[in-house]
Amino acid sequence: MQSTLNVIHWNIDPVLFQLGSFGLRYYALCFLAAFIVSYVLMLRVFKREGKSQELLDQLSIYIFLGTLIGARLGHCLFYEFDYYIQHPLEMILPFRKGPDGWELTGFQGLASHGGAIGILVALWLFAKKTKTDFIWIADRLVLVVPIAGAFVRLGNFFNSEIIGLQTDVPWAVVFEKVDMLPRHPAQLYEALAYLIIFLILWTMYQRNAKPKAGYFFGIFLVLLFGARFGLEFFKENQEAFEAGMRFNMGQLLSIPFMLVGLFLMFRKPKTAQK
């Protein structure tokens, strides 16, 4: 990365190294780091709350699958529905049929709102299976989701994807793999916002480990999806159909999450969680 005339040029190869047909991508490392850091932090929470590591291990499997499946289906259904309704197998298989036959593509296209829905479904299934209170586990899980999101957005930066609008700010980035225009580094804006949200929630938890049921969950939804809604104004639209919309798909999908968060924050308190 080099700076020329107050513009940062970004042209890094997203593949760290290639071994035959296998390539290790920076994005994959960021995704892995997101789960490792989240696990370590959640282990501290579980120990503090007297919960077993075995329970956390089960939860981790549910969350991993819920995140991956939800994010993939979210992208296919929210952003490229017309294509994937004609090619349903490509939703779940890392292959795409080209002119020369099937080719390995990986899962190109993951939507964070779909991931959020997938996590909620996974939490519900986990709570039902283990007879754990859904709101209790949600209040704890959201403590680490923002730091995981920050790692994922860093991976997007390495991939030169989810780019920002053209700008002349001194910290503008030219994503040379996309074009030669100086743009907002929207991925870094979002990563920083998520890091700040993580610090806020983690500090609140350290000071008050037993808030009103759903309170941390509510704050998380309002802060994270509020940040997502605002930062969308700095981003290029993900798909062509969003061009004529007052609010893009990411913003529209954020509104229900924020409303649920406000409800959880301001509903009449019951009893402290146990």
From TrEMBL:
Major place of residence: membrane
Residues binding a 1,2-diacyl-sn-glycero-3-phospho-(1'-sn-glycerol): R153
Family from the record: Belongs to the Lgt family.
Role noted for this protein: Catalyzes the transfer of the diacylglyceryl group from phosphatidylglycerol to the sulfhydryl group of the N-terminal cysteine of a prolipoprotein, the first step in the formation of mature lipoproteins.
One BP annotation, GO: lipoprotein biosynthetic process
Localisation: Cell membrane
NCBIfam families in UniProt: lgt
Protein name: Phosphatidylglycerol--prolipoprotein diacylglyceryl transferase
Organism per entry: Sphingobacterium psychroaquaticum
InterPro entries from the UniProt entry: Lgt
Pathway: Protein modification; lipoprotein biosynthesis (diacylglyceryl transfer)
One Pfam short name: LGT
GO cellular component: plasma membrane
